[in-house]
Fold this protein.
Amino acid sequence: MSAQTPPPPASAAAEKPDNVLEIAGLRTQFGTLDGTVKAVDGVSFEIKRGQTLGVVGESGCGKSVTAMSVMRLIERPGEIVAGSAVLSGTDLLALSDSEMEATRGDRMAMIFQEPMTSLNPVFTCGDQIVEALTLHRSMGRREARRRAIEMLAKVGIPEPEQRAGQYPHELSGGMRQRVMIAMALSTEPELLIADEPTTALDVTIQAQILELMKDLREQNDMAIMLITHDLGVVAEMADEVVVMYGGKVVERADAIAIYERPHHPYTKGLLASIPKLGEKRRRLDVIKGVVPNPLNLPSGCMFKRRCPVAMPVCDSPPPVRQLEDGHISRCWLEPDGSEPAVGANASAEKAAAAAEDISVEPLVLPDPVKDADKESAA
Amino acid sequence: MTEQQVQERPVAKAVSKYDKLLEVDDLYKYFPVKGGLMGLRTVAHVRAVDGVSFDVRRGETLGLVGESGCGKTTLGKVILQLLEGTDGRVELNGKDIAEMSSAERKEVPKQMQVVFQDPYASLNPRMTVGEIVGEGPMVHGMKDKQQREKLVRDLLAKVGLNQSHVHRYPHEFSGGQRQRIGIARALALHPEFVVLDEPVSALDVSIQSQVLNLLADLQEEFGLTYLFIAHNLAVVQHISDRVGVMYLGKLVELAEVESLYAQPRHPYTVALLSAVPEADPRRRKKRLVLKGDVPSPVAPPPGCRFHSRCWLREQLDYPEKCETVEPEMHDVGSGHMSACHYAEEVTPETVAAAAEAQARHEDSLAAAKAAAGPDDTTPPDGGGDDDDGAGGAIGRLRGAGARGAGVLLRGGRGKKS
């Protein structure tokens, strides 16, 4: 098995430099009665062919909204207000609704946490895969049916012919998730977005599904965006990891670097707060406080109220630092973890100028809502 | 370092070894499955709890783990008398709860309380925090409103909530805060024993650790005894003194936490531990992936319930005993209980051997698949002649999902060493 797994990111990039998905400056907002919620606020990352990107963070950090934005499944009052999401050269955000419908489920597919809510209860499992194939591959029903059964076999469902005729409620949770995966992969998408695919499953079934996803990733050479809060699952699956907090990417690096050389205090806190097998501690380290209300986000660094090393300078938006190749962190701390060169108590103007210098990503994005207001006022 | 920290646990727990707070003796809970004409006839029974015996010692935390549907929550509910047991006894402080007079029964909540999994469903949305936490004391005779409010405020402070929130409603709180309210409610009557049914599964990781620390602090302060039901093995290891593992309504292993995690003596526990993904991308774990799903508790397999998925049985060349004789819990050394006929065979060596044998089996299976060519479910172009072709891969994958005996060895992350 191990011989077949794809090589590490560096050499993979050398062979196939193409990114399957490139997201840049993506912003998704929800207009509520109490104000605008910036659920995704300037998120950028890319996923290479045959690689898995893990997106981690607590609930409300914007990881699922990022995925839904890429799939263009955001509904009112939500709106994608800026940025781009490019799938192998196609700007998804520029497609018309019908073009998007043709792309979704064909070149890109998504699997969700709870398969029961995503499978249609009044159609058999086979019919639902057949539908995807007749829609996207203009296959005849007979051929589509043969292919559906083949897919069910491929994801490890025993007696696929019989299972194809069964309804979702007749299957166990693990089997349903397999059906979801079979459906998602029936059109051989370039990109699979998996939103908490194993959270609802038991560990033994989770292990089966993760092995299955690894095998299918190798066979189809597809890219996976794996959204989860389980740092164990990410360690198991991901080549690269993006840590999100308050709608922003706060740290991004290859998997080994995230676990061994985390830089952002939030990443460190997350890693320290989970109990680990084989390690017994009297007390767990905690991240104090709770995720901030998205309507009342702190100025400057989003994490400063919970951060154990918060400094006055954190009232200014922190720079996006490049620590090593491909490892970035949105934090005032120097790469070695020491106090920022600009000084822990630097004035707002000085800090802003310094942040501008250090940053590898634009820090201040134009606010389309305010701009639109100004325009209409003018 | 970890050993030292383990020893920091209060000494009181060690000396109270024979002081049983709760005794569960051969407990059964069957749910009828209705069917037949108009659904009036009982056609079968779901054997949710099927003969479980254990005790909980004063001051300890007993962890209970198992996959969904193994009966761990039902067991908790029967202990709490939220469900009536079909057979068997639950003794609290030496008294059989089922045989208590109604007056005595009313006093049980003062000794035994519960915290539920879902902090959204377990708090009445129409009651304020003060009413929720103060309801127990009110029912049990604390009629004075001011006195009650003072108690509630004290409790809120103890669980780390703002005292001024006493007049707020549950919807104004986050999940972690709600779970703290649930804990305050459980403590309002100063019980000795608290059943914690998946108390942190619905919470975010950073909040999980806060609540786990709170539970440990409260246990120390009030000398509480916990029955901690959860499916997360790392969390159970963290909080428990002893751990019981359930499978299909039965307890299959029960031991001190260090012993159970360091050397599990039941093949199911080995597989469970092996399935947990570790937060370390470098660690290549030789993984035993169990095949198939948990069988139906309506008709559990005869003999040992785990035999249909057991890797050890395969390793021992399918001994007949596993299918015919139901194994009893027995001591396999210094109080480590296991319900496996061949518990002494569960060693790191057999686990490794099973893994290797399975890897070989898997390879030969793949080769056989490839040699046999495409079957009816394989596309004409999908079956390869070489071992690594699509046909072989499909064979492996189908094997992974098939119900039946055995394990699949996967080498964990094959890349990046």
